[in-house]
Amino acid sequence: MPENNSTVEALYRHFGHTKFKSQLQEKAVNAAVKRKQDVYVSMPTGSGKSLCFQLPGLMRENQLTIVFSPLLALIKDQIDHLTKLKIQADSLNSKMTVKERDRVIMDLKAVKTNIKFLYITPEQAATKFFQDLLQLLYKHNKLAYFAVDEAHCVSQWGHDFRPDYLKLGDLRIKYKDVVWLALTATASKEVREDIYKQLRLQTPVAQFSTPSFRRNLFYDIVYKNSIEDDFQHLAEFAHHCLGDPKEFKGTPKSQRGCGIIYCRTRDQVERVAVGVSKQGVGAVAYHAGLKTAERTQVQESWMEGVHPIICATNSFGMGVDKPSVRFVIHWDCPQNIAAYYQESGRAGRDGLQSYCRLYYGREDVKSIRFLLQQDSQRARGRGDRELLTERALKQFEKIVDFCERVSCRHRLFADFFGDPPPQCNGQCDVCKRPKRVEKALEMFHRLCMD
Ligand code: ADP
Ligand code: MG
Ligand code: ZN
Fold first, then answer.
1. Mutate to test the pocket of ligand 1, among 9, 15, 43, 69 (most ligand atoms within 8 A of CB)
2. Complex ipTM value
3. Is ligand 1 within 6 A of the CB of residue 43?
4. Is the CB of 51 under 6 A from ligand 1?
5. H/E element holding 215?
6. Which chain residues have CB less than 5 Å from ligand 3, an ion?
7. Rounded-to-integer distance, Cα 72 and Cα 61, Å
8. Is the CB of 48 under 6 A from ligand 1?
9. Torsion angle of alpha carbons 262, 348, 283, 311, nearest 10°?
């Protein structure tokens, strides 16, 4: 009998899913079920990370899983979801009525506990009351797992550090024989190392991470000083990526290829949208200066394929999931490697060949650097703010440095996420035509000297 038979069966019984969403999800669940090691799961948003602790938790009879989650809103969503599936999940927080709270506590202290998942914010977890409760649950052997959702919150390198997450490490020491599961969306190497260290996960940790490498994306860098007409260059590239419109006669507009051009400022967004449109490729502008209704309308017209190109500031893209994005262009240098990966990664979600291009200009870099330096100066002596602005500047310099080097573009991301070097296979300008990139870079440096 295959070892996963019982997990597949439980998956169907509890959630109604006939199969795992991915091999990684299945492997992570099986590792947790084995209870031999702490488990770390890093997969993109929407990959089904919750199931990696929920299914193992449900497979432990007479035990419950403690889930740490940073926000009450997230907690509510998860509890609602589980309740619909007839799985008992509760929380203990300041928003509850005394009656609700008493009901939860009664159940936890009863000889037989019905609650399978107890959701807690790290702030709540730190209270004396909760610490005593944990002690009691532990004594009666009622603890199945500790799960830390959004585990990147423990890291000062992450984008939303929560100091209270740091205290969770003490619990790891206190309850040595309870297995810990830490989950987060794609995290950098630094963040992952921080999670291991701060949560004091027991090594070797069973690690399940989606590889960062996207084999269907071709990356290249074009030095702005090497092109004559900006808009013509952009339009030609867009045309090349989108293919001949005649070929798509039968395809509904919304499913045809489309693209995103990221610019740094509203002015640039407007300028590029107009400029590219004049070259005969329909483009709309999206930025925070538009009214909400206008923004929605612009986004919809792009989603529906009325305009194939959207020019946008980086406020665009969260939650946008259009499979047929054939190219993502950065007309200005991205802020850092994480943002570059995330923004360019909106291309080719359908797995088809797609293109990510960065237009690099010394002048843009100078002005971004200047702004970041100003931020940093203003934040002097203001604790966390100072740290954040300094870090932003350092992270920007990393991407600048990368743009001025001849090194596989996919390798950049692999190093950042701590993955082994990927088989690029000519999916970047450096691997495809190294000589040409060297020349372009030489020219770039020469012109910058003048
Ligand atoms: P994440 O935390 O990684 O962002 P979630 O745990 O919120 O993702 O899950 C995203 C969606 O995937 C949910 O709607 C969930 O019900 C669904 N899902 C999870 N596992 C499976 C599966 N094996 N089969 C089908 N749907 C699944
Ligand atoms: Mg989640
Ligand atoms: Zn390469």
1. 15
2. 0.98
3. yes
4. yes
5. none
6. 408, 410, 424, 428, 431
7. 27
8. yes
9. -10
- Asked if residue 57 lies in contact with residue 145, where contact means CB atoms within 8 angstroms, the answer is yes
Which atom number of ligand 1 is nearest to the Cα of residue 78? 7
CA 261/CA 283 separation, integer angstroms: 9
**pLDDT interval class at 1 (50, 70, 90):** very low
Q: What is the pLDDT of residues 201-248, one digit of tens each?
A: 999 999 999 999 999 999 999 999 999 999 999 999 999 999 887 788
356/6 Cα distance (integer angstroms):
43
Ligand nearest to the CA of 52: 1
Q: Which atom of ligand 1 is nearest to the CA of 11?
A: 23
Say how many Å lie between the CA of residue 435 and the centre of ligand 2.
44
Establish whether residue 45 lines the binding site of ligand 1, counting it when its CB lies within 6 angstroms of any ligand atom: yes
Instruction: Give the tokens for residue 298.
Output: 């612009």
Structure-token pair, residue 322: 């259009």
Any idea which ligand is nearest the CA of 71?
2
Q: What is the pLDDT of residues 299-340, one digit of tens each?
A: 999 999 999 999 999 989 877 889 999 999 999 999 999 999
pLDDT at 393 over 90: yes
Q: Within a 10 A sphere around the Cβ of 124, how many other Cβ atoms?
A: 17
What is the percentage of the chain residues whose pLDDT exceeds 70? 99
Note the pLDDT tens digit of each residue in 394-418. Answer: 999 999 999 999 999 999 999 999 9
pTM: 0.85
